[in-house]
Amino acid sequence: MTVESGASLLLVGCGKMGGAMLDGWLAAGTASRVVVVDRAGLPPSLAGDARVTLASGADSLPDGFVPDVVVLAVKPQVMEDALPSYRSLVRPGTVFLSIAAGKTIAYFERLLGEGAVVVRSMPNTPAAIGRGMTVAVPNSRVSAAQRALSDRLLRAVGDVAWVEDEGLLDPVTAVSGSGPAYVFFLVEAMAKAGEAAGLPADLALRLARATVSGAGALLDASPQEAADLRKAVTSPNGTTQAALDVLMADDGLQPVMTAAIAAATRRSRELAG
Ligand SMILES: NC(=O)c1ccc[n+]([C@@H]2O[C@H](COP(=O)([O-])OP(=O)(O)OC[C@H]3O[C@@H](n4cnc5c(N)ncnc54)[C@H](OP(=O)(O)O)[C@@H]3O)[C@@H](O)[C@H]2O)c1
């Protein structure tokens, strides 16, 4: 495989995440050939794309097909059944790249064998629009080139950070994995509070939604940190200051958020296997 020719990939599971990644790889030219295993078949948009073929399972891959990367994008609960049939693909030149929540490197080494080259990663739902945040951790057999290739593949759906300590994937799951839900709840909470302050329900929801998504876009477009943008809209003794005095009090949002992230981290540890 060369960067110019693109990688040879096996995508196991072509649902929301796998499908979004596949679109990104094809658009960026990261993949020269992708074999997809998915019970539902190929998305209609890919019919006729010569780079993509469908296989019904590990035992029906095209003759001579040796993937550089096997991307594991099935639900965690079907991994146990699906994975053992891919043991025959384990070799130093093939990296198994998982995006399955909670499935540890030890789990993949157990089901694939000790020699498996594994990258475990945790994306989040904005990956569906190419705006995901993924954190990845390699096992000891991942080469520099395999890490770079995995990085390019994950980058197709957003930003990527790497950690060496797999234990960090629990707080990562709590912050970026589950995080989009907290932001959606912020919209709900602001709308409910706006309604309590006298706004019609539909207008309150519209304002809250536009404000959260607009502020997110502003943060994204700005080189400034969130704290600087916050200070920029806070005049002394003004309306924003009055709200932030409540939100930033000792018993305000910070202790609630810290407790929420700690609860999610604990749950991630309990569910990991
Ligand atoms: N969605 C997210 O926001 C998100 C975020 C972080 C991590 N993840 C991880 O991403 C992975 C995929 O999630 P998703 O939301 O994309 O799920 P999904 O939309 O359900 O996609 C999974 C796909 O795999 C197919 N499949 C099931 N069994 C299979 C098998 N044995 N071999 C090949 N394909 C099989 C499913 O087909 P059927 O529908 O016919 O079963 C489905 O098309 C999960 O492990 C999840 O933990 C997702």
TrEMBL record:
Residues 11-102 form the Pyrroline-5-carboxylate reductase catalytic N-terminal domain. It is an enzyme of class 1 (oxidoreductase). Its main location: cytoplasm. It comes from the Bacteria. One of its GO terms (molecular function) is pyrroline-5-carboxylate reductase activity. Its EC number is 1.5.1.2. Residues 166-271 form the Pyrroline-5-carboxylate reductase dimerisation domain. It holds the Pfam family P5CR_dimer. Gene3D superfamilies: NAD(P)-binding Rossmann-like Domain, ProC C-terminal domain-like. It is found in: Cytoplasm. Keywords: Amino-acid biosynthesis, Cytoplasm, NADP, Oxidoreductase, Proline biosynthesis. It catalyses: L-proline + NADP(+) = (S)-1-pyrroline-5-carboxylate + NADPH + 2 H(+); L-proline + NAD(+) = (S)-1-pyrroline-5-carboxylate + NADH + 2 H(+). Pathway: Amino-acid biosynthesis; L-proline biosynthesis; L-proline from L-glutamate 5-semialdehyde: step 1/1. Catalyzes the reduction of 1-pyrroline-5-carboxylate (PCA) to L-proline. HAMAP family: P5C_reductase. Belongs to the pyrroline-5-carboxylate reductase family. This is Pyrroline-5-carboxylate reductase. It comes from Azospirillum endophyticum. The lineage of its organism: Bacteria, Pseudomonadati, Pseudomonadota, Alphaproteobacteria, Rhodospirillales.
